[in-house]
Amino acid sequence: MKQIIKNKQSLFLAQKKKLREAGCEDFKESTKLLFLEAYGIPLNQSSNYQTNKDIDRNANIFLSMVNRRAVGEPTSHIVRSRSFWKDDFYIEETVLDPRPESEMIIEFTRKQLFEGMKVLDLGCGSGCVGLSLHRENPEISLLLSDLSNKALTVAKKNALELKIECKFIHSNLFSNINEKFDLIVANLPYVEGHSFLNLQREIILYEPHEALYGGICGIDIIKLFLSEVGKHLKAKGKFVIEFGEGQDTLIKQELLRLKFSNFDFHRDLNGINRIVCVINNTLNLD
Asked: Which of 35, 109, 175, 279 sits CB 3.0–4.6 Å from 262 for a disulfide?
């Protein structure tokens, strides 16, 4: 049996080397996740009771997944899962892969949640942001919205898996939404034209372009959102949006133009402004 374990270790190391040579920046973590997906347990916990048939089948699955990762397919798409905040979310090619930056939205709003609070996750994608907020406070009233019906299907699957009761609506920004909310969170497309073709190959090939491209300057859709959001906030309601590197000045100008004056930008771990939290101070009668 020691020989079997050694063979697994050799296989693991060979595939890790393959991903490194293929240029995968996350080759170490990807190899671990793909091995876990293929064998059901980490390498250091491999069972001593697998048959040779099981070992061959699992090895073939592992090799197949590594080959997919080597040509650029994201690991999260291969294993259909991505960790975000405190949970694992179902992910597929119809939604964006959740980014660590988006967890900032949870960090800066979770302590402000209260029972009965009406929360809208606009452009929800997989639902990871809104559903994570609900996990922080199950007493909120949550609505998840997206332009893509396929994305809503993924969000519904995640809500079901997490046993979260919430509502869903198909809407192009606020086109089908007539309510007012205490909190609106949004991670809208913000990649500008000249940067789009410079994205990582795996992003261009495997993630939905409509969830990435934000127009020539990157904030075209965000500007549309800002022009409408005031009508959908309760008095003293708040909204939080994520945006791209270097877009804070343009967003600040737009906020001031629309008479929003109570806002704060927040930096990521690299010291770059990535989200803005805005309190509604425009005339808004409930």
From this structure: 279
Tens of pLDDT, residues 232-278? 999 989 999 999 999 999 999 999 999 999 999 999 989 999 999 99
Of 64, 79, 94, which closes a domain?
Answer: 79
Residue of 96, 93, 26, 34 whose CA lies nearest to 68: 34
Q: How far is CA 249 from CA 103, 139, 253, 276, in A?
A: 22, 36, 6, 11
Write the pLDDT tens digit of every residue in 109-128: 999 999 999 999 999 999 99
Residue 113 lies in a domain: yes
150 is a domain residue: yes
275 contacts 107 by C-beta, under 8 angstroms: no
Q: Does 12 fall in a domain?
A: yes
Predicted TM-score (pTM) of the model is 0.89
Domain with 18, as residue range(s), is 2-79
Select the more confidently predicted residue: 255 or 214. Answer: 255
44 & 102 share domain: no
Considering the domain architecture, whether residues 11 and 132 belong to the same structural domain is answered as no
Q: Is residue 285 part of a domain?
A: no
Q: Roughly how many angstroms between the first and final C-alpha of the chain, as a whole number?
A: 70
Q: From the centroid of its chain, how far is CA 236?
A: 27
Residue 99's identity, in one-letter code, is: R
110 lies in the same domain as 41: no
Report which of 163, 150, 159, 140 is spatially closest to residue 207, judged by C-alpha positions: 150
CB-facing half-sphere around the CA of 144: CA atoms within 13 A: 27
Start-end of H helices in the chain: 2-21, 27-39, 52-70, 75-79, 103-109, 128-136, 149-161, 193-196, 201-206, 220-229, 248-257
Short-list 87, 81, 88, 67, CA closest to 24 = 67
Angle between helix axes 52-70 and 27-39 (nearest 10 degrees) is 150
